[in-house]
Structure formats: structure tokens, C-alpha cells
Amino acid sequence: MIRTAPQGPATRAELVELGSRALSIRLACLESLATLGVGHIGGAMSVVEALAVLYFRHLRIDTGNPKAPDRDLFVLSKGHAGPALYATLAEVGYIPRALLATLNKGGTSLPSHADRRLTPGVDMTTGSLGQGFSAAVGMALGLRMDGQRADGSARRCFALIGDGESDEGQIWEAAACAAHYKLDNLTAFTDANGFQIDGSTDEVQGLRDLSAKWEAFGWLSFTIEGHDLAALDAAILRAEAEKGRPTMIILRTIKAKGVPRLEGKVESHNAPFTMADFEASRAALLGQEAVHG
Amino acid sequence: MADKELRAVYAETLVALAAEDPAVCVVEADLARATGTGPFAKAYPDRFFNVGVAEANLVGVASGLSAVGKKPFAATFGCFASRRAFDQFFLSANYSGLKVTLVGTDPGVTAAYNGGTHMPLEDLALMRTIPGLVIVEPSDEVSLEAAVRLAWAHPGCVYLRLQRKSAPRRYPAGEGFAFGKAKILRGSEPADVALLALGALEVGEALKAADILAAEGVTAAVVDLFTLAPLDIPLVRGFAEHAKGIVTCENHRLSGGVGSAVAEVLAGMRKHAPLATIGVSAGSFGEVGTQDWLAEHFGLTAPHIAAAARKLLA
Questions:
Q1: Under an 8 A CB cutoff, do B64 and A142 touch?
Q2: Å from A159 to nearest chain B CA?
Q3: A157 forms bridges with which residues in the sheet?
Q4: Domains detected in chain B
Q5: Burial of B19 (0-12, 13-18, 19+ CB in 10 A)
Q6: pLDDT tens for each residue of B207-266
Q7: N or C terminus: which one in chain B shows less Cβ crowding within 10 Å?
Q8: Of A116, A141, A173, the CB nearest to B56
Q9: Pairing of strands B48-50, B24-28
């Protein structure tokens, strides 16, 4: 059975629970990257809260069956954040937590970039930037062809793209298409962490006002703090209530959030990461939790 | 009765399949008028999507539709289906293990007045590098209908090379086809020479070449390859062992296409008949002109095929 839709905004207790999930995902992801010694840390850490709110509140999935036929779908179009998705899928229970230690090793089912053939719970293969977002538009069209669930709800597709990924022309082809077909069952996020491989997004290929662009393309679009669980929850509720157009939620995030040595730095995109780095991050994160918890 | 336009057969077959299977859908990129899928759009408007002039998104959307269990047929000119949307077809559709039929229309010199910019002479070569992809080019309306139905039933991706205009009927209605099984249209195995052709244009030219050769006392078997991938390797090997020469005939550049695929088979044989390849020379881009002028200009016509066969037998 897929989980029921949330009834209204998350309570304080639910937000605490989501915070604890996010922390667990962040630590599990960092540990897997430290075990490997290198990886896409920056863009994995910037999407953890969005993944936690989706997988532990808004995605209508069956935690006992990653292929439940009436589930909602999620496309991680910025496929290089695969390690964060895998940690999330382990937290959900789709894959064993011990599997995270096999990240990127020969024969693993957890490759650097998300792969639907290999990993239970991955709905689309991504990695060549821009492509996952088009697929998400196709999925949303296909879900609409099937009509509503027995309970009268629409099956939804969620997609997460990067701000660097937004340089791809295919993103804007898909953007126009989703608005043309009025895909209100499609909710997307842009992880606006402000950096891409060669520098800040402003330096490399400034896209200016992203939210205004999405609005101009016919989407509902607004910007929130991407690590704020309550803001994420409220934004998704707003998107689900929107009729006749898709929604793009711009997430203001911090690249490598939770890794003091790399936070907000361009070199965090694909960086060496040792067990000592992991221990330092864990101490910092658990320390913060002690203060806030 | 005049032969039907092949695009009309394509659309009619899709309409018939859609009646049988609610998962069948069509995705176009502002070339529905060229592909001729208007009847499908009219019959099944909720299963017809036009993404505009956006071929990357065409293939991406088709892949997404497949990911939720649909059976999309996406079409555009062959030049765009291959050169422009290659990474999308490679990754989002094929690598992802999904099921997308991508139709590339106006193959080779049939692009005619659209000219060199629009002339797909490398689509077969590109597509042949994708593991597991079926590449099919029918030669008439019967084999086209079979190809569309086989693509619908096939669990993976298919590249369908589709000439839009009519082609002479080669097969009786209801003829059975299978991916990987070529058809011997004329002659049989001990022939002097085997003409292995792909697609309506070259199957027609190979048949004409066989007439020319027959008048000279040379027996030529004519094979409609039907699929380039999988290639009918047992058939190719059989002719390579028993004929005195093999001529491949393709409406495509001579790099990476039919001639290359057959040469790869022969390279694995200790002893085989000599091979000649008919196609656009490896050093040439496409050009503009009538289809007939282009076929002659690039040496794709029956006299060129017959001359190549004669040279092998000399």
C-alpha cells in the first residue's frame, strides 16, 4: 500500500522526525563517500533535505515495494547526486544500508550516476544533464494518460535539477513542453547551490533570475530556503494545490552543506573525502543537532 | 491499384495497434505532417503528443512515457533522430532499458530537395553502435506493417528507418517477418553473386541489377536484409561460403553501415566470397537534387550494382 497524502502542513513533531531522517541520510551518504575516498559531495549534500521531505512525507510510495504500480515517481535529473539518493533509499529500506559501502566499486548496484536498471527505487537513469528532466515530463504525461488513482488522487512525478544543469538547452525544451501540456502533476526543484564545475554559476554561465524564467515559461515558480524542512513541506503543498501548470521550486542551498571543509566551495563538486573528513563532519553535525535538538 | 505511401501505412498500423493496446502512443516534433500521423492524432488525441521543434525532448519524453509503461513511437527526420538526439536515444532510452521506437524518416537520398543538411547517410552507422538496438528498414508496405507490429511487441528499443513515399509491393499481404531474419527475394544459395540490400530504394535497385545480370547469364540472388541489427548472420555466412561474390547495397554512406556490418561477418571467416559495397562514398556528404539524380550521382543504382558484381566475377 502506498502512503497516504499528508493532511496539511507538517507538525512540529513531524518536522523533528524529518530532521532526524535528513541527518541520518547526510551521515550515511558522507560515510559511503568517505569509504570510497572521493565523490560528488557538494551536490549530494545540497539536496539532502529535499530528498528527506519527499521520501518521508510527500512521495506516495510503498516503503515495502519500490515498484508499487500506483506510486508517485521521482527523477534525480542531476544524476551525480546519486550517493544522496542511495542513502535516502537505504533510509527508506529499499536497499540495505551496508550496500552503501559498495558505491562506485566494480560490479556495484550503486553507480556514481543514478541508474534505474541497477538500483531498486531509482525511477529513471540520469547523468547526462537535462535528460532526466525530459523523461520526467514524459512520465507525468504518461501518468496522466492513466487517469486518477482509486482514491481520486493524481499520480505525480517529482524531479530535481541543478542550477548548473539549467545551462542545458534540453531543460528549456522540456520546460516549454510541460507548461504546454499543463502538467500540474509535475513538481520540480532546482538545487540552486550557486556552483558548477568550473566556478560559480554567475561566473560560468549566468542564468540570472531563474524563478522569473520558469514563470515566463508558464510554470508556477518561487524560491525557498532549500535546507528548511518546513519551507520545503509548505512549498510542495502549494505545488500540489496548483492547477493547470507545473511548479518549479527554486531551492537556495549550500553546496557541501554539513562538510565544514568544503561548504560553499567550488572544489566540493567532486572532491577527495577521507574518513577523517567524515569524522569531522559527523562531529560538527551531531554537535549542531545537540544544540538544536 | 497504386502502392500506398509508406507513411500512410505507418499511421494506419499505429491506429490499428492503438485500438488493441492502450499503451500505444505517438510523439512528434513538429513533423507530424511529414510523418503522416494526423489520423492517429485525430483518433487518439490523448495519446498523441507534439513537443515542437525539440528533438532532444522528443526522445526524452518518449523515454519517460516508456518508464511508466507506455509504448511510444517517436518520429522525426532521420538526420535529427540520429545526429541530433543520439545521446538522448542512447542513454535515456537504450541504456535505461526502456522501450522506445524511434522513427527516422527520409533515409539517405530520399531526403532529396531537403539536401545535404537533412540527408541521413550516417544514421545506420550511429545506431549500430548501440548495444541491443534493433535497426529495421522495411522495403515495402507489407514489411513496414510487419516492422511496426514487431516494434510494438519488442521489449526494447527499435530504430525504424522509414521512407515516406510509396514503394513497389514485394510481399503478399500477411507475409511473416522476424527481426534478424532476411528474406531472399530472388534466386537461392548457389548463385553466382548475392546482392544484399537494405530498404526500399536499394532492394528495388538490386532487383533491377539482377535483371541486368540475368541477361548476361549471371545468376544473382537478391536479399532484403530487413534488419541491419540483428543482422541475419547465418544467411550472410551461407552466401559468403557458396556464392562467388557478395555485393551490399545501402542508401547510406560506406562507413559503418550495411557494408561494414557484412565485412565484420566475413572478417571472422577463414574463407569467403569477395565483397563489394554499394553506397555513398565514405568521403562524401549529402547533396541536394531529385532522388533519382542523387541515386545516380552517388552510384546507388542498378547499373552500378551490376558493374560491381561483374567486377567480382571477372
A1: yes
A2: 12
A3: A73, A186
A4: 6-162 (3.40.50.970), 183-313 (3.40.50.920)
A5: exposed
A6: 999 999 999 999 999 999 999 999 999 999 999 999 999 999 999 999 999 999 999 999
A7: N
A8: A173
A9: parallel
